[in-house]
Amino acid sequence: MDMSVPASSTAAGAAPADRTWLRLLGAAFLTVLVWRGALLVFDLLGLSLVPSMGTCRKQWQVFGKGHEFLNGFFRWDSGWYLGIARRGYSFNEAKSSSVAFYPLFPYLSRYLGTLIGSAPVAGLIISNAATVGAVYYLRRLGAFLHADGVGKLAGILLLVFPTSLFLSAFYTEGLFVCLAAGSMYHYLRGRYLWCGLLGFLAMLTRSTGLVLFVALALDLGVSLYRRERRPSLAMAALLLIPAGLAAFMLMQYVQVGDPLAFSKTMKHWGRVAAWPWQGIVDAFAKTNYTFPVNFGATQRFIDALFALAFLAIGGVMAIQKQRIALWSFVILGMLLPLSTYALAGMNRYSLGLFPAFIFLANLCRERPELERWLIFVSSLLLAVYSLRFMHCGWVG
């Protein structure tokens, strides 16, 4: 493993280092404003031009009738997060319960909502502000690893990814990518305390925070074994990341009396222990390749393709001897949900595997036509998913 900074990052990556973080954050804000603004205009028009695709549940009408556009950001898991924000955790082992969802996003929504008078509005502010942070850190990572242009494009590829609609919804995706990418960036820069603190918060946001810890620990362990880094007490700050899981378990013990409640409720979502390949093999075996009008069956096939694509990206990154922290995060981040058999949401889970977007952006430097195709195909699927989500359809 080559622990040195790539030659390209010394020259091309030096440009953003000379700018202030505030200017880079401003650039990230403008990027999100342009690309996300285009999607929101599409959604607004689509709600008027396209008939309803599903039945909207009462709990998704957060702002009441007549506010379909704002209500469109509250679908499916948003109801669970909003319930946690308003009432805390509850657990019934006989059925699905809110303990399956991690606490940082809903509790931030609660406390910011107390200040501004609305937890739903607070959550939307947090999601979109965090998305700006995610684009910011992707640019810093891309510039550090390759070149500034790679970082810029990585942010755009994130924003046009088919399930990037969740970055603006009452969901955890934007917050997790921001925190996890920030943690990874500071780790690569040798800033272990910042890495651990952001990783701690990422662990409180999604279960993939555990994958972040394993990826960073593997990278650090190999570098220490090869004497490419000198041992330092500051490295112990990485242990803050699994401490986030301990904090979540303590919270569940206090609120529902069972620190493992989050794992016991997963069976109600069809998630059981399985070999990672079982769900993929079954998805392809059960697919009707005439693709009749059946969203669930077609989406299961697409989810299997997403899983294979991201596993392949992680494999190529490993073959290229990129940093262990990068490719192991992509591979393990895909294997974790695959080990529960259910493929539902695999397209959304892929959104959090941010090193893959840096890999694709760097690949586009040598193949400009690939950039055009990626943006075109991704944007097309994003439009379909986003409109369906707004119309109360399930997309991931």
Topology:
Elements: H1 7-11, H2 14-17, H3 21-49, H4 68-71, H5 77-87, H6 104-116, H7 119-145, H8 148-160, H9 173-188, H10 192-203, H11 209-225, H12 240-256, H13 261-264, H14 276-286, H15 295-319, H16 324-338, H17 346-351, H18 355-366, H19 368-390
Helix pairs in contact: 3-7, 3-8, 3-19, 5-6, 6-7, 7-8, 7-9, 8-18, 9-10, 10-11, 10-12, 11-16, 14-15, 14-16, 15-16, 18-19
Write up what this structure looks like.
By secondary structure, the chain is mostly helical. The two termini are 35 Å apart. The chain has one domain. Helix 3 (21-49) runs parallel beside helix 8 and helix 10 packs antiparallel against helix 11 (209-225). The protein is 67% helix and 0% strand. The chain is built from 19 helices and no strands.
Question: Which features does this protein show?
Answer:
396 residues; mainly alpha; globular
> What's the rounded overall pLDDT mean?
91
The helix tally amounts to 19
Please provide the ordered H/E string of secondary-structure elements: HHHHHHHHHHHHHHHHHHH
- CA-atom Rg in angstroms: 21 Å
Count of strand segments: 0
Structural class: mainly alpha
Strand content: under 5%
- The shape is globular
Domain unit count: 1
Low-confidence stretches: 1-18
Helix proportion: 55-70%
Most strands sheet: none
- Determine the N-to-C terminus distance: 35 Å
